[in-house]
Amino acid sequence: MINRSEYLIKNIGNYCILIFFLLFSGKSLAQSSILDTAISYKAKNIKLHEALTQIETIVNYNFSYNPDLVANNFIKCRYEKQSLHTILTNLINDSTLKLMVVDKQIVVTKKRALRKLDLKRIKETEIGILQIKGTILDIESKQALSFANISIKGKSRGTVSNERGVFNIKLSPNYIYDTLVFSYIGYRNSFIPMRELSFRNNLIYLKKENYKIKEAVIKTYDANKILYDAISKIGDVYYTNPYKIVAFYREMVKKRHKLMSISESVLDIYKSPYRGTYSDQIKLLKGRKSRYYTHNDTVSIKLKAGLKATLTLDLMKNPINFIDRKFMSSYKYYVTEITKFNNHKVYVIHFKPLEHFSEAFQGDIFIDVTDLSIVAVEFYVPYKVLQRNKQLYVIRKTRGVKIRPTSVKYLVNYKKIDKNYYLNFVQGELDFKIKRKKEIFTKNFEVSFELVVNEISTDNVKKFKRKEVISQNNVFLDENYEYDHQFWGKYNYISPEKSLQDAIVEIQKKIDKLN
Fold first, then answer.
1. Do 311 and 270 contact (CB within 8 A), yes or no?
2. How high is the pLDDT of residue 292?
3. Beta carbons of 410 and 234 less than 8 angstroms apart
4. Number of neighbouring beta carbons within 10 Å of residue 417
5. CB-based contacts of 499: which residues, under 8 Å, 6+ apart?
């Protein structure tokens, strides 16, 4: 009889702090009195960003600004009991910028990014959609931050950035007075009023905030106890009753890094209770797809269907063995650091299997220090284990074809709304080597799937009718659906990287010629 962990592994096989944000402009939402606080400060021949870092420790507020807006000159100053607003205004010395306070952050921002004229224009458009685009980068390295979370403060709407840090969020103009929250593991959260952003080309620079802890101190943390307690609290910190989500879903198949197919859809998902026999359900709202491959490449398209894996990867509902207390003795756990996620301190617990364990994973679990909620998990299948269980990762294959998986890794994270956590983002990446009989060389294929939760609803939740539900076992690219241009304008989506867009254009041109 197959046990629960084996079942989950097979289902997966079958088939993202201050975010030291560049802020762009606006008005204080709360706690603006900090700017009136009198402090003393002196500095001699240091860069402006160093001075701001020193002032952060004095006032216990973080600064959030766009480095491209603020000149980073050397400064020399001495202030005795001056208001913080006066000190900052003199240090920054730019009349086109202004200061605002959002939660525990002091934002240095450009004056009036979205004007009333812009808002009027939005409302007069046919669709009436407020669309904001930008890129999220590390402030020091300028490297893109893949799969950073973007959401509306205190609400259930949101999206994530793509592999190149690009985000594209579409909202009703009614949200113009709300605040966007950007979060990324290991970085500070940043709160940016919607009106402080422009429609496009927003560069959001985030700042790392890891806590420096000596190795001797790290060893005092009992990782097993932390994880054991976190597992015990799953029923308390996660929303375990039925709820519905509207999600964006994407599957891609590449051969030697060249795109072969892409399918995207907006899904309505019924999340069943954590306890009980009911399964999650998926209703396809709208979809679109492009594909270009020969008959000989069909085997690659049949490798994985990610819908079932995506729902199975809700690990708080479907715990895999490394977060199952019955199997914890088969793993070694240790705290590697304390970092930040969504403005909360989190333990980073690394886990790896003991040698004897055959159905094993390896990776990191991120656990909130305060409420012991598991906020994210990154894990992969070790290569040796992958080769022993390679049959789990192929749905079906063509006769005379050898398929060998070379890498399987997953990422899942959760978002807190009010007092409960909900599924927020799921990603899977699977790499294969494929060799046909009588061929000398193998071919490399990459299969990926992503699910991003755009909206969560807990009111009047009911199961879907049977005829509305699509099968989670089918290869998603094979689903039949019509492209609806007007519909796609109403939903958030992950902007694919430019090279991917170019590939889709070329594919479509060839398809058009055939018609």
1. no
2. 58
3. no
4. 16
5. none
What are the DSSP calls for 443-464, one per residue?
A: EEEEEEEEEEEEEEE-SS--PP
Q: Does residue 185 contact residue 16 with C-beta atoms inside 8 Å?
A: yes
Residue 419 backbone zone (phi > 0: left; psi -120 to 50: alpha; other: beta): alpha
Integer CA distances (angstroms), 236 to 229, 230, 233, 345, 385, in order: 11, 10, 5, 19, 34
Beta strand pairing status for 97-102 and 105-110? Answer: antiparallel
Q: Which two tokens stand for residue 227?
A: 């994880």
Q: Which residue has the tokens 């950007």?
A: 182
Residue 97's DSSP bridge partners are 110
- Residue 158, class by beta-carbon neighbours within 10 Å (0-12 exposed, 13-18 middle, 19+ buried)? buried
CA dist 113 to 100, 165, 201, Å?
A: 14, 22, 12
Q: Per residue in 421-439, pLDDT tens?
A: 999 999 988 888 877 776 7
The arrangement of strands across the sheet holding 62-65 comes to 62-65, 105-110, 97-102
Distance, in Å, from the CA atom of 198 to the CA atom of 216, rounded to the nearest integer, reads 47
Please state the pTM of the whole predicted model: 0.72
- Give residue for tokens 């939402």: 29
d(CA 19, CA 35): 21
Predicted pLDDT of residue 97: 76
Q: What is the pLDDT of residues 286-304, one digit of tens each?
A: 887 776 555 555 554 444 4
How far apart are the C-alpha atoms of 250 and 252, rounded to whole Å? 7
Q: How many helices (H) and strands (E) does the chain have?
A: 12, 22
Q: What is the DSSP string of 273-296?
A: -SSSSPPPEEEEEEEEEEE---GG
If we measure between CA atoms, which residue out of 314, 313, 331, 309 comes closest to residue 322?
A: 331
Report the first-to-last Cα separation within the chain, whole angstroms: 52
Is 392 in contact with 426 (CB distance < 8 Å)? no
367 vs 251: CA distance, rounded Å: 29
Which H or E element spans position 57? helix 48-59
User: Residue 468 to residues 182, 454, 464, 480, 488: CA-CA distances in angstroms?
Assistant: 35, 20, 6, 14, 20
Q: How far is CA 160 from CA 37, 211, 237, 265, in A?
A: 36, 25, 23, 15
- What is d(CA 371, CA 243) in angstroms, rounded to the nearest whole number? 22
Structure-token pair, residue 471:
């099968």
What distance lies between CA 101 and its chain's CA centroid? 26
Strands (DSSP E) found in 223-330 = 243-255, 258-271, 281-291
Residue 335, strand partner residues:
349
- Report which of 278, 276, 273 is spatially closest to residue 241, judged by C-alpha positions: 273
Would you say 449 and 427 are in contact if contact means Cβ atoms under 8 Å apart? yes
DSSP state, 359? S
Q: What is the pLDDT of residue 338?
A: 87
147's CB contacts (< 8 A; 6+ apart) are 16, 160, 161, 162, 163, 411, 425, 427
Residue 34 carries which DSSP code? G
- For residues 135-154, give the mean pLDDT: 86
Mean pLDDT of 318-347: 89
